[in-house]
Every structure is written in structure tokens, then in C-alpha cells.
């Protein structure tokens, strides 16, 4: 399976990386004048951006002058030889390059075009530039996040970007399956805004049916109480999720307070939600009498869902993370390897693999042109001399 990845930053590149993890031949095509912007974002190691490395492993690299007519024609030739093309330009950019869907589907009827944007290819917001934070703001995710009496808060990770990458990948794989039956490709569209909306659970029907705006709840669950972050005597933060009618009696017994189940204020999840502040005060007062490990041992023995709020230092030493080999060495040309989180995909018969790290700018341009288009060294040398690649 061949994938041509023209995307930048997170959502598009991570989509391409997932396909590379699953075994596709992914070619990342970047601007010839410095490559994609993600190469210059965040902390660096041996001259490479960790941000860029995090979403571009298992790809070969090609550098191309997108603005040059010869470069655009070369891109069209590559598109004719690929199965999936991923792009996240602002709407209209691909069309201005002469690569509209009608043209692409004519030269390659089986092509699947994955289009990732902030708000969509058309509509009143389609031309707005968009990053993850803007999508969290516009979709309502941000207004539902943060302390009850605090400001709207961005999630600590790029939830709209990564969710969009997952939706784009799922839809592209479904389009491949459909192509087996029809012989034809199609356009797959994924947007950060739509992905944010998909994360809202019941917020939209609650508003449209009842006129209720969802409040910010901090660390509380929206539906069940207690779902609470409390601190132990030795300063360990622990999050417990014990709001349903099976878990709460176990939690109360583990605290040595089985009588809470009979208390009318806490007898069922409706009552617990109504009296959540009082219940949380009881939990807080109990927790400060014990060390964190003792609390975790008690609650795990009682089969109450709870875990330590981990620092990243805790995460990388977590025995479950180690057992599942979820931190892996990704190849790097200078350091030999760089540690990253492994793919979250697990398959018994065809497991994902990491065969290469992120490519250098234009590292495989000549190889791809030879393999995909059959160009000889003289033709490749001419393109290099003209500044096309």
C-alpha cells in the first residue's frame, strides 16, 4: 500500500504514521525550502525536533517545490501511483496546484484522498486557520474543561488533532475496503471541529432538549459521584472513580465507613451527585490519614477503580508500561535511537512494526522517483539541478 503524505504538524502526519506502523509505504512530501513547519517546533535532540519525530516515523522523505509548475506535475505523477493521498492544506490550496479531486480521480480512479482541515472544505468557517486549541474552543470542548469557578481551559494534550488523525485513518481504511468492491476511490474528510464535537458525549442533546449548558467540573465525572482526585498523607494524588451502585459500597467499606451506603445523601448515584461536595469532604478527610500506597492497596484489594495521578517520571517506570513494551527505541541517524511511546495498535497476526525513524528532509527523493515512477539517474539529476526536488 502506497501513501503520499503532504501534511504538516499533527493530525495529518499522525494519520500517515499510523498507516506506516501498519506496513504501508508512506512517503512524506515536504517543501524544499526547509521542510514542514513542525521541524522547527519544540525541544530538539541532535538537531531534530522531537515534535516532528513524534509523528513521522515509518516514512520516507521527499522534498519538492510545491510552487513550481514542474513540481506540481511531478506531484500529479506520484498521485497517479499511490493508493492514499493525505493533505491538510487550507481549503482551495490543492485546487490551486492543479490537483482538484476531478483531476486526481481522472488520473487515478482508485485514489483515496484524505483531506484534513480545521472546519471543512466549505462553509462560513472553512477559511479560518485552525490549530488544536482553536478547535477545542470552537467545538465546546474548552468550555467544558477546567475548574468550576475557573476560566475555560485547554486540554493538556492535543485531543482534537489526535482524534482527527484516528477518524481520518479509520475512514481511509474503510474506503480501501469499499474500493475492493467498487474499484473506485473516494474523498475522506476529517476536521478538528467535527472531532471536537464527537467528544461532547451528551452536551448537545442536553442543551437542545433542556436548554442546559454543561458546567465545568474540574476533576469530577459528569455523571457519577464520587469521581474525585484526593491527596494522601504523604502528598500522593489519587483519582478514584467509584460513582456507580456497584463500586460505591466497596469504596465505603474500604474506607471503613460502610454506613455511608445507608446515608440518604449517598444512597444512590442521584443522591451522591446532589451531595457531591459533602461526599468529597469526607473522602478528603479520610485520605489525609493514610499514605498513598496504603490507600491504593486498600482500594485495589476492594476492586475500586483508582490510580495514582502519575508524573511522566512515574509513567516511564510503570511496570504495566514496561510489561507491554509501550516505550520503544525509534531509529535516529545521529543518536542511534530515540525513546518514544509505541503504537497503541495491537494485532495478533500482523502486528505493527517500527522499521525506520522520521526521514531527513528529502532523504529518499531519488529512491521514490526511481521506484514509483521509474525515473533514471539523469532525469533525477535534472530535477535536482532545476531545484524541483
Describe the structure.
By secondary structure, the protein is of the alpha/beta class. The protein is built from 17 helices and 13 strands. The model has no long low-confidence stretch (mean pLDDT 96). The strands form 4 sheets. It has a 6-stranded parallel sheet, with helices on both faces. A 3-stranded antiparallel sheet has the order 9-10-11, covered by helices on one side.
Q: What topology, given as strand order, has the largest sheet? A: 5-2-1-6-7-8
The largest sheet is:
6 strands, parallel
Helix percent band: 25-40%
Q: Uncertain spans, ≥5 residues at pLDDT below 50?
A: none
Number of helices: 17
The arrangement of helices and strands along the chain is: EHEEEHEHEHHEHHEHHEEHHHHEHHEEHH
The shape, in one word, is elongated
> Mean pLDDT score, rounded?
96
User: What class, by secondary structure content?
Assistant: alpha/beta
Total strands: the figure is 13
Distance between the termini: 23 Å
Amino acid at each position: 500500500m502506497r501513501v503520499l503524505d503532504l501534511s504538516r504538524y499533527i493530525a495529518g502526519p499522525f494519520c500517515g504514521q499510523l498507516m506506516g506502523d501498519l506496513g504501508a509505504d508512506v512517503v512524506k512530501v515536504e517543501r524544499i525550502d526547509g521542510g514542514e513547519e513542525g521541524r522547527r517546533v519544540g525541544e530538539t535532540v541532535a538537531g531534530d525536533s522531537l515534535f516532528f519525530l513524534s509523528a513521522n516515523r515509518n516514512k520516507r522523505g521527499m522534498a519538492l517545490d510545491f510552487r513550481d509548475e514542474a513540481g506540481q506535475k511531478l506531484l500529479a505523477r506520484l498521485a497517479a501511483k499511490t493508493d492514499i493521498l493525505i493533505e491538510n492544506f487550507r481549503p482551495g490550496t490543492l485546487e490551486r496546484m492543479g490537483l482538484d479531486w476531478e483531476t486526481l480521480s481522472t488520473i487515478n480512479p482508485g485514489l483515496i484522498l484524505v483531506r484534513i482541515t480545521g472546519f471543512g472544505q466549505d462553509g462560513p468557517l472553512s477559511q479560518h486557520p485552525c490549530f488544536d486549541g482553536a478547535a477545542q474552543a470552537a467545538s465546546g470542548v474548552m468550555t467544558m474543561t477546567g475548574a468550576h469557578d475557573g476560566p475555560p481551559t485547554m486540554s493538556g494534550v492535543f485531543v482534537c488533532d489526535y482524534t482527527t488523525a484516528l477518524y481520518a485513518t479509520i475512514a481511509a481504511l474503510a474506503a480501501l475496503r469499499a474500493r475492493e468492491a467498487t474499484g473506485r476511490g473516494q474523498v475522506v474528510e476529517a476536521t478538528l471541529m467535527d472531532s471536537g464535537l464527537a467528544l461532547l458525549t451528551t452536551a448537545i442533546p442536553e442543551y437542545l432538549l433542556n436548554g442546559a449548558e454543561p458546567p465545568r467540573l474540574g476533576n469530577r465525572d459528569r455523571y457519577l459521584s464520587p469521581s474525585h482526585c484526593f491527596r494522601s498523607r504523604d502528598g500522593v494524588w489519587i483519582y478514584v472513580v467509584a460513582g456507580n451502585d456497584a463500586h460505591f459500597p466497596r469504596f465505603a467499606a474500604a474506607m471503613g465507613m460502610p454506613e455511608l451506603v445507608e446515608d440518604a445523601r449517598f444512597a444512590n448515584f442521584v443522591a451522591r451527585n446532589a451531595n457531591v461536595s459533602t461526599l468529597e469532604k469526607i473522602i478528603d478527610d479520610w485520605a489525609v490519614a493514610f499514605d498513598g500506597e496504603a490507600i491504593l492497596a486498600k482500594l485495589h484489594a476492594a476492586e475500586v477503580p483508582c490510580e495514582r495521578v502519575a508524573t511522566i517520571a512515574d509513567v516511564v517506570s510503570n511496570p504495566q508500561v514496561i510489561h507491554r513494551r509501550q516505550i520503544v527505541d525509534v531509529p535516529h541517524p545521529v543518536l542511534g535511537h530515540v525513546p518514544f511511546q509505541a503504537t497503541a495498535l495491537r494485532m495478533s497476526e500482523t502486528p505493527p512494526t517500527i522499521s525506520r525513524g522520521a526521514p531527513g528532509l528529502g532523504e529518499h527523493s531519488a529512491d521514490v522517483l526511481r521506484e514509483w515512477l521509474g525515473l533514471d539517474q539523469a532525469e533525477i539529476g535534472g530535477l535536482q539541478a532545476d531545484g524541483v526536488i
